[in-house]
Amino acid sequence: MTRPKLRHVAFVVRDAAKMAEFYRQQLDMDLFHVDPDGSHFLTDGYINLALIQHQLDSETPTGFNHFGFTVESVPTVADRMVAAGVPRPVTRPTDRPFAEYRAIDPEGNWFDLSEHGFLPPDRAATS
Fold it and tell me: Which domain of life is it from (predicted)?
């Protein structure tokens, strides 16, 4: 099995469009997707940056939210995680095209696991 690869980080932000423009202009990142809720997704060609639009009716605070790994086999990684004493990763909602599973580390930090990567599934095959 190949080594899992860190492929995205996500922040909850107050103004995703403004933040995306900052990263595009100042750090030459490419915008590759905008969700209906206003969340913006950028890439440097290797690591993706998810700028999740803060929702006023949400209890999720702004700031760092989670990170994600691309893995060869989620079931294999999940079995290793359970053996290490953490909960088995759970399937993400189907309206989340960028990762199939959500996991948690021993200190409660969220992270995603994906076999197809962190571009939308229809674009993952071309990248």
Answer: Bacteria
- The total of structural domains in the chain comes to 1
CATH label of the domain that carries residue 39: 3.10.180.10
Number of Cβ within 10 Å of residue 100's Cβ equals: 18
Query: What is the helix, strand, coil percentage profile of the chain, to 5?
Result: 20, 35, 45
What is the C-alpha separation between 1 and 76, in angstroms, rounded? 9
Q: Cα(50)–Cα(36) distance, rounded to whole angstroms?
A: 14
pTM for the full predicted model = 0.80
Please list the rounded mean pLDDT of every run of 10 residues in the chain (127 residues): 89 96 95 94 93 91 91 94 94 74 89 79 49
Q: Which contacts (CB < 8 Å, 24+ apart) does range 23-32 have?
A: 23/49, 23/51, 32/119, 32/120, 32/123
